[in-house]
Every structure is written in structure tokens, then in C-alpha cells.
Amino acid sequence: MNIYILYKRTRQFRELKSFGQGINRGRYFRLMALASIDAFGSIPLATYVLVRNSKMGVVPWKSWADTHSNYSRVIQIPASVWKNEPLEANGLEMFRWVIVACAFIFFAFFGFGDEAFKHYHLAYTSITRRIGYSKSSGTLHDSSHGYAI
């Protein structure tokens, strides 16, 4: 459905571009690709969690006091115990690594864009100026004494 909407909205993108100054074609397509990956990744993950939770059974709701009891309690379970439960081990490991994968995917979309490289260049030149590195000669300059180090 995202692909269909993306195709359908291509004409409207030109109108949107005339209103917004920070919107360009590259950002728009990166955002649409990220939204598509989010949809294709979230649906199977949510289905897995829903099926896993439904296998554990439904716990009847008692009260808000029961729901909010022991909120500050942190349960510590040794790895030797939770690794012997395949559902628990898979769920925990998936939760750990999905967050890392999402961070890498987000950076891949927005960390390699033209505007990101402009900011990287600005940061690099700012740092090199502060430490006194000259781009042309490739040496450090001591500004207080006026000689190259």
C-alpha cells in the first residue's frame, strides 16, 4: 500500500516542494523508504509478539491497584534460568537486537544524505580550526608562537 501511495503522491510532491523549503526529492524518498521498512518490519514483529502472548494465556484484569502493584520492583533472573526457556530467550534477544538494527537502518537512511555530509564537513573544519590544523600544509600550527609543530 505504501508503494501505491508513493506512486500516487508523486504529483503532489511538486506542490509540497513549492511550499516547504527543507523538502527535497531525496529526503522524501528516504522518508517513504523508512516508512515502508517500518511497516514491513513492524507487522511481522507485532504478529510474533501477539501470538507469543496469546500462547501464554489471558490473565483476567482485577483492579488498577493490582495492575500498578510492584512497579518499582526489578526482578533479576540469572541467565542460566532464562536461557533454558526458548520463548523467553528468543524474545529477549530479539528485543535487544531489533533496537540496534533499527538504529543502523535509521542512520543508513539519514546519515549518508547530502545534508548530513555537509554537517560532517562543517564539524570537521570546526574541529581542525580549533586544534590549529592547516588543510593546505597538513601540519599543526601553534598560534601563540607562530611556528609549525
What keyword list fits this structure?
mainly alpha, two-stranded antiparallel sheet, 67% helix, extended, disordered C terminus
Task: Give a verbal description of the structure.
The chain has 7 helices and 2 strands, in the order H-H-H-H-H-H-H-E-E. Helix 3 runs antiparallel to helix 6. Strand 1 (141-142) and strand 2 (147-148) form a beta hairpin. With 149 residues, the chain is mainly alpha-helical.
Rounded to an integer, what's the Rg over CA atoms? 26 Å
Flag low-confidence runs: 145-149
Number of helices: 7
Spatial order of strands in the largest sheet? 1-2
How many structural domains are formed by the residues?
2
Shape: extended
The largest sheet, given as strand count, sense and whether it forms a barrel, is: 2 strands, antiparallel
H/E element order: HHHHHHHEE
How many extended strands?
Answer: 2
Mean pLDDT: 80
Strand content: under 5%
Distance separating the two termini: 61 Å
Q: What is the helix fraction of residues, given as a range?
A: 55-70%
SS content category: mainly alpha
Secondary-structure topology with pairs:
Blueprint: H1 2-8, H2 10-19, H3 25-56, H4 64-67, H5 79-82, H6 86-110, H7 114-131, E1 141-142, E2 147-148
Antiparallel strand pairs: 1-2
Q: Quick gist of this model?
A:
With 149 residues, the chain is an all-alpha fold. The chain has helices at residues 2-8, 10-19, 25-56, 64-67, 79-82, 86-110, 114-131; strands at residues 141-142, 147-148. Strand 1 (141-142) and strand 2 form a beta hairpin.
